[in-house]
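go over this chain:
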Amino acid sequence: MVDADASLPLPWLDEPLGRALRQGAHALLVHGPEGIGQFELGLTLAKAWLCEGTAEQRSHGAGCGVCRSCHLIEARSHPDLLVLIPELLRESLGWAGESEEGGWEKGSKSKPSKEIKVEAVRRYGPGTEAELVALGNRGQFEEEQRAYDRYNWKGVLKKKLQNVITVAATVDFAAQTTDTAGRKKFVNPAYEKKNSLWKAMFRAGKAPTLAAAEFAKSWMKEL
């Protein structure tokens, strides 16, 4: 995953990471010689796909490291991410004993396995207890996210600023109007259906509207 200084865990992952992100595939098989970073690439990809940060926050196109989703991944508690790895690798990563993935916990008398056990795969199959727990966690996560968005003023402000930028780019300042019963109406009926913000920008004119959009862009960079 991307380090705190915005660098990738292994510098040569930049090119394959970018290629994988551009593919947009529903599934991806990562393979290669041992030790070149397949595991790190897989985790970085998962974080990139689940990240909720803005494009400006995301270094290398990977996870931003600051959004709620990235924090959950760092804590290995994201409801939409399941990592199945051999017990021995869990131990080397310091993940041993944190969960029951793989069925081995720190302090076990048995020797950690170098392979992913069949029991571990079955445990996370359709209809298993683990799947039901994951569904419950996902529901709780979504509810908490809604509550977070509701009270996160930065998130609300960003949405409103983005709306100003988006709408401003669509206003046709050359649109023709006509007087109908003492009221100005657009000749193009589609413009009559535009929302109040679009019409207010049209009335304000091109220069003030574009200035407002530029101000909104600058403000968003500060959030």
In short: Strands lie at 177-180, 183-186.
